[in-house]
């Protein structure tokens, strides 16, 4: 007879409320979940406390959306800036390569002129 194995679990992580939370592989919500559950426990059927909780939760949700939008924009800007820097670096490298090639052509032209002068001297002295 074979034993069935359990699916892996995160040791030490519990969900006493048995709520179905989304899987948080980044680990950004455990403290929030715990504190919100504690806060809910403190409502104790008081309508004023429930209203405060709902308003606070809504404000935090709106704040999270606003911060997220800024983060997305900052991320896009950083990617665009990095791409622009890479393009500028490539262009600078191309320009530098063209400048080096121009220097080499000038050096070659100078050597060719010098060779022509020497050839004329040699040919002229041979006559």
Task: Report what the structure shows.
This protein has 127 residues and is mainly alpha-helical. It has one domain (30-126). It is built from two helices and no strands. Helix 1 packs antiparallel against helix 2. The relative contact order is 0.03. The model has no long low-confidence stretch (mean pLDDT 84).
- Helix-strand sequence: HH
The largest pleated sheet is described as: none
Shape: rod-shaped
Q: Output the number of helix runs.
A: 2
Task: Identify low-pLDDT runs.
Answer: none
Measured between the Cα atoms of the first and last residue, the distance is 110 Å
Fraction of residues in β-strands: under 5%
Annotation, overall tally of beta strands: 0
Question: What is the structural class?
Answer: mainly alpha
- Helical proportion, percent range: over 70%
Number of domains: 1
The multimeric state of the shown protein is: single chain
Mean pLDDT over the full residue set: 84
Radius of gyration over C-alpha positions, nearest whole angstrom = 37 Å
